[in-house]
Amino acid sequence: MDEEILQDFLVEATELLDQLNEQLVDLENSPDDSDLLNAIFRGFHTIKGGAGFLGVVPLIEICHRAENVFDKIRNHEVAYDADAADVILRAFDKVSQIIGLLNDGEREIEDTEPELLDELDAIYKPVANQDVAEETAEEMPSEPAESVEVELTLPEGVDPDGDMTDEEFDALLAQRAQKTAEVSSDGDVVEPNLSLPEGVDPDGDITDEEFEALLAQRDQLMTESPKATSQTVQQAEPSLTLPEGVDPDGDMTDEEFDALLAQREQITSKPSAPKAEVKTPAKKPTEAPAKPKAKPASPAKKVDAKKEEPAEKAKPSGDSTVRVDTRRLDEIMNLVGELVLVRNRLLTLRSADASIEEISNAVANLDHVTTDLQTSVMKTRMQPVKKVFGRFPRVVRDLARKLGKDIELELKGEETDLDKNLVEALADPLVHLVRNSVDHGIEMPEDRLASGKAKVGKIVLGAEQEGDHILLSITDDGKGMDADLLRRKAVEKGVMDEAAARQLDDKQAFMLIMAAGFSTAEKVSDISGRGVGMDVVKNMITKLNGSIDIDSAMGQGTQIRIRVPLTLAILPTLMVSFGEDSYAIPLTSVQEIFDYNPDKTNNIDGQKMVRLREQSIPLFFLSDWLAPDVEKESYQGDKVVIVAIGNQRVGLVVEQVNGQEEVVIKPLGLMLHKVSGYAGATITGNGSIALILDLPGLVERFQ
Amino acid sequence: MTVQTGERQYQNTGLFSDGADLDDEDYISPTIRCVLFRLDNENFGINVKKIREVLRVGVIRKVPGSSPNVIGVINVRGVIVTVVDTRRVYGLPSKPSDELSRIIIVELDEDRAVGLMVDKVQEVKDIPESRVDLMAATREGASGYIQGIAHYQDNVIILVDTDNMFVER
User: Is the pTM of this model over 0.90?
Assistant: First the structure.
């Protein structure tokens, strides 16, 4: 296999799979959308083409069958019902899996389980048999359609092998032209049809779209020919069945194709000649509506793919690449130009006797340019949240079907941009939360009806920007959470004693579900209820400097809100210090700062606590850890920084608070990764290094 | 301030007088080009291919809670690099840096570098491969940090195994 071509194929296939994933679920809601059907058909077809070129046989086998299925569906011969969807979705999963394996460097792909292939076949085969069985006049309109379809797929089948050159294609067209011209008086009608493809052909790349466009054109031309007789249609039959026997093998060579053509020639050379034209007019009724719609959709996609390819080629794995609008790059280039100008200005000022004013002007300019540049560069890392959301329709659909629930998923604010790393990091937690909503939130249809709700449950997945944060929300209209039940469970599981549990307000009680090992599910399903998951979600969100907030009303539903910073690269922090050494505390966690006052502290069970508005909060004296060599007589004059870590609050005692600073997080070097309590380091405004504190790690250190 | 003057410099201490007693063999056989440095009285060598630069010692930021073998971190043109107390790695007591002390920035791979604090850097020397006795598995429980020993021009040079030194255990 040619690695470079393979990588290109994988990038394209991954994109197609993303689209297919969405389209397949959409299709279930609107099974008659021919645009969608064509797009899906094309998706599988393109993957098959690439796989054929690279010789990935299992992939060809599946895609080919899927393609057949959708061909039938779009011709209204097979209905896309939930059962068909299940099989197709499994086929889709298999395709994703194979692409995944290829992406992971696997080159030997095992054959697909024959059951899956059989099931795929089963969707469309019975109908095909029927067709053959009843050769009635009524069938004719659809039958010839197939025959033309075969003509269609034949050249397409050849295409993926890479052996279809322009000349061959011309030759084929010429052959056909000859045939038809020889026998029919419609030669003049065929002629214009011929010249058109030739105008397109010499470009070397005959794409599927072009080919289909050609056929569509021919259809139009053919409509003018009035030559549809029933006998000729019947004679068309043999040419029909033959290609079908060969096609499913996936390996259509040029010779085979030639052979087929030769066969057809034999048939057509008999007096029944005008068949070629007859078939096409008959086909129109079914095909014509589909094709023109397919065209506008697919060329657009092609253009996209082409444009993006150069950027992605450099690296083998699609994950490490970002797609950037060229306009954005121009903007950056522009700003870099500005930056160079400011540098030149500063260099001149350095050598000349510059006034303070001139210098400060130049510096102000520099400030401007760098800020803009920072924003622009950050934007290049932004991706629409759609990347994560895209997978949910499928997740919800599968789960709902499995549980026998009726659920409608609504996505809001999919176009909200988010840092690429965040998009990836958020995927897993969101899946957990959505699964929870489906499993625990939404009730069974009959229960919903009984409690006077609509039968179909609704989950809304939303994203919006909120200042320098992104707010993600998962809202369901399910049964809501019972705060009392949660309090009871907390006591049962020994998480806290009764008194403590009674003190929790409802919100705090809801947050209990985020505790490790906490599950209220009466029975454990394979979907959720094991009490793992929510704490993982909480940890991941905390790691991203985000926060979680739960709101719920019994019988009305639950809303979970997640706030995460726009980007992970730049972190707003509170700078604190001990003597010369400065440390940065992520600002999102900081709640308030006040002077340390020994009168307001208590020693409770060996832990210093500070009283704050009727609450005791544990105090961590950071100097014990960060400046152990310094003998500290008194903490008078020190500051207490109250931070929230998950649903816990602690007070950090620091010597000085130096104010806010936006810092760029840099990883700590070798041998320091395992030291807990640090999230990284940064270079401060005065050029020294400040260590960024990792609050969860820090708490561990003090407990 | 932790900003370093990134100037490279090697001092020729005249420890090895060039071309003094070279055999024919030394000219013919392939050599390893090494930067030589000293810890107390021992000579150490690191393959130049591994070295990005040699820095004077600036301000080193301590990282409380880290291993005692780590002195701290420095800022090398925007990258945070860990500085290792090479003396401790080889079982010598720590000592404060002086004006001869240098930090050798060793590149482990494309995006990992580490600084080795050494007493002083001496010179760059080509050591014939034939003079190097590789240490691999010759001694039970050998500190994984020595690649081999070269006997050359009346000196014993310990070749540092930078690849194994920082395998995180």
Answer: no
